[in-house]
Specification:
Radius of gyration: 18 Å
Strand content: under 5%
Largest sheet: none
CATH superfamily: Ferritin, core subunit, four-helix bundle
Number of strands: 0
Shape: elongated
Amino acid sequence: MWTYEKRLQYPVKISRPNPDLASLIVSQLGGPDGEIGASMRYLSQRYAMPKSNVAGLLTDIGTEELAHMEIVSAIIYQLTRCLSPEQIMASKMAPYYVDHTTGIYPVAAAGTPYSVYSFASKGDPITDLTEDMAAEQKARTTYDNLLRLIDDPDVCDPIKFLREREIVHFQRFGEAIHTNLRRFFPY
């Protein structure tokens, strides 16, 4: 169905572990505006989209969001690898560690596990694409919030890349509404 290249869409090379940062960034994996919800939203909505070009757009962006899950997971993994029990205990990551060790688990920074309730799929093209634009803006805001809190350039660099992609996706969904509005509802 897809060609999978076994490399990240954007490289992640973090030199210093930091479990406190990982405990924040995990929200972009399984939080309310994270990459899992985005990928599931778009890959679910594509089936009910009446125009094949827009269904294709949802497929393209939905699969790109899967690649973003890989990037976020790589960031979390690199921030938590080789930690001593003392480092974990001294961090905000200790409660997460109790349940998941340093495994990658989709959860919000506040501790709420990922839920499908974090996305919508109505089957109405305007409703769904408007939802998608809002989702991209919320994800961008979360990346902005992370960038305000993080000063490690190794961590900020891939987060800036992900933030830029949220803006592009927002624009593409807006274009899909604008160019297909009459075709969605010809009456």
